[in-house]
Design brief:
Elements lengths: L1 H19 L3 E5 L3 H6 L16 H7 L4 E6 L8 H6 L5 H13 L3 E6 L22 H21 L6 E4 L26 H18 L4 E7 L3 H11 L8 E6 L1 H4 L2 H14 L4 E7 L24 H15 L5 E7 L61 E3 L4 E2 L7 E5 L2 E5 L1
Parallel strand pairs: 1-2, 1-8, 2-3, 3-4, 4-5, 5-6, 6-7, 7-8
Antiparallel strand pairs: 9-10, 9-11, 11-12
Helix pairs in contact: 6-7, 8-10
Amino acid sequence: MKQLKLLFASCLLLCAGTMYAQKYVGGDISLLPDYENANAKYKDQNGSNISGDMIQYFKQQGWNAMRVRLFVDPSKASTQHQNEGVRQDLDYVKALGRRIKEAGLAFMLDFHYSDTWTDPGKHSTPSAWTSTDPDVLAQTLKEYTVNCLNELKAAGAEPDFVQPGNEITYGMLWPTGHCYPNGGDYNGGTFANFAKYLKAGIEAIRAICPQAKIVIQTEMSRSTNVTNFYNTLKNYTNDYDVIGISYYPYYHGTLETLNSVINKLETAYPGKKIQIVETGYYHKWYPDGATYPVSTFPTWPATDDGQLQFTKDLIATLNQHDSVDGLYWWFPEANEYGVPYTNAVTPSGWYNASLFDNETGKAMKALYELHNFAGTTGIENVNVNGNVNGNWYTIDGRLLNGKPQQRGIYINNGRKVIIK
């Protein structure tokens, strides 16, 4: 009987490793090193100072993946954009990416292919990429991607997911790669040029990081943009793994809208995974320029509890879909508490949809809710070969905060441990 119990426990572990490793939850923490260097004071939800590495703290709360953006030459960005957070050059990303990998988390790399922000309203070509010949630009992009990935691998920061472009609903490398999601040309740019650039990036990723999953990211300013984009893209390439979506309810609408988009994508692209690679909701000072005012979401006021309820409702929606295997909060690390005003990390203004209060440094309740998307985290770092990461897990893979006090069978340092 004892042997059967041990065998059953082993099977549970193996099944848990297979099941839970397929879902990812975390955040885009691209400015975390700057906040750390500015001595921002992070506190937990009870107001106690968080000691130690913040990436490890996020991991302890059930996060198992992190996303980081990369610009070609952010020193060429405008002062305003630099003040908003455009600072991540290759050296910056190598250091942060290595920390993520050393912590045992999945690492998503977000190529912006620009010196500054890219989104549906702007996709400027890097200043050093002076050619207007689409073939030359495609080759330049490919060589740049190869170089970056080789350097990341050498630095111990090989990405697990790679985005060849950020929010590319309207193309990239404008003006030549400017286009409409339905395939239409835009002001001299064409979808064919854009697809050429995208395929150049994909080829580079496949060559240098063949194990990495390729994520194609769009946003939902119009729900039809998402389906139109992927329906057009399939005429040029199907060589990607994940459909990535930005979803901010104050810009993109209700969860019913998001759910409808996911349903359509699941039907049209059953072989693709879907991830929400950016999301967030305000806990204070709801934005004046929101497309959808706070009155649209009566159960989500701009408060700690309102942000928490949004997170719960989003997770409940996403967990209805087997195809959805990723959820990333954008800019969760924003926290100016303890930072002198003259040394503000984002002097252009606070971001109050983060998971910390800029005025107190306290963590928001939503930070501790996100793990429920994956149900567990970290179990992929536990295996029968005895990986050592120091964490304790339940037999079904739930990460614990320190050594358990109750009797039972647990996992520690890759082995089953009985606590009597």
